[in-house]
Amino acid sequence: MPISKCNNTEDFRRLAKRRLPAPLFHYIDGAADDEVTLARNTAAFNETRFIPNGLADLNGMDCSTTVLGQKISWPFFLSPTAMNRLFHPDGEKGVAQAAAKFGTMYSLSSLSTESIETIGALTSGPKCFQVYIHKDRGMTRDFVERCKAAKFDALCLTIDTLVAGNRERDIVTGMTVPPKLTLKSFASFAAHPCWAWNYLTSEAFELGNVKRHMKGGDNDLTSIIQYVNSQFDPTVTWKEAEELIGQWGGPFAIKGVMSVGDAKRARDAGASAVMVSNHGGRQLDGCAAPFDMLGRIVDAVGDDIEVILDSGVRRGTHILKAIAMGATACMIGRGYLYALAAGGQAGVEHAIDRLTNEISRNMTLLGCAGLSGLKRSMLQKGNPMERT
Ligand SMILES: Cc1cc2nc3c(=O)[nH]c(=O)nc-3n(C[C@H](O)[C@H](O)[C@H](O)COP(=O)(O)O)c2cc1C
Fold this sequence. Notes:
Radius of gyration: 20 Å
Bound molecules: flavin mononucleotide
Number of helices: 15
Order of helices and strands: HHHEEEEHEHEHEHHHHHEHEHEHEHE
Mean pLDDT: 94
């Protein structure tokens, strides 16, 4: 199936499954433990219904918003995800270019296969860098200075990955980083000669940001889990978040906030935004869905800081529901990774195009000419027979 035939995230998912060796597909697709949270993340959106209005004045429809100091054309942007060149040689460069083309923000992961400097110089589009606090604090401080020099617009600190989540699909498939031919994975790599050819003939795998800090280089990694558990610091506290926000001195989001208490702590530490996220269900299984917590968090801190939501977003209507609930914007993760795996930069562009199409069509169907027209009163949850 060509990417032009993909109409939605699920189509891209199916195509990614065909194009990627099993360890890599399941690394993207999988989540922690029983994947209960993964399923809940999207179900939470689908259990909420719209109540549209008709015959509104829709002249000059505008879906733009401002997030982390940057005007973006659509109320969603791309969340940070690790190691994109494993999925397609276009990797982070292709994803960043696709985001810039559609006037939205790109986020680069600490664990990317391209460096801060490469992505900083690549596009003039808005860019956010995602930080993990490493045991080697010099490394964390160095990230911030490199982002300043490379003219990144914003930073986000991920707080939900103090240890790696238990992703059992990776154990079953024999996922290693970089990919290695193991007894478990051999058949799957052999069955995907196109991916294998691309991987072997494109730039060698490297973790662009952290390699200079790793004694044996980045080729001694056997798994991302081993990296996270050996390098990330599980003892980090809000005090250090506050110091990092001070060092950066610009727009700063805390990613992985799930409670009202943490949202308030992030605001009090000086953050300009919280990213309500459970890492796409990849960390704490049994965790609440971000959409289920969104209203309470918006009510607590929404007048003071921006509230961004990710995890489970698969449709334009999911984004519009989050905005109606009070979010400033959403982010998508797997929604662009499946497309990257399926068709490189062109795939990501097609996926973003589909989402923007869904957003403008559904804004029309809802009777809204701008995002401020989306109100919580246009959402129905629980018993549909209740009076609204
Ligand atoms: C393959 C993969 C790698 C990820 N890597 C990172 C990462 O390096 N840093 C981070 O903060 N979040 C990472 N995430 C989480 C995303 O930023 C985002 O929170 C999540 O994908 C949102 O859920 P969704 O995939 O349902 O949209 C990753 C997610 C996936 C699927």
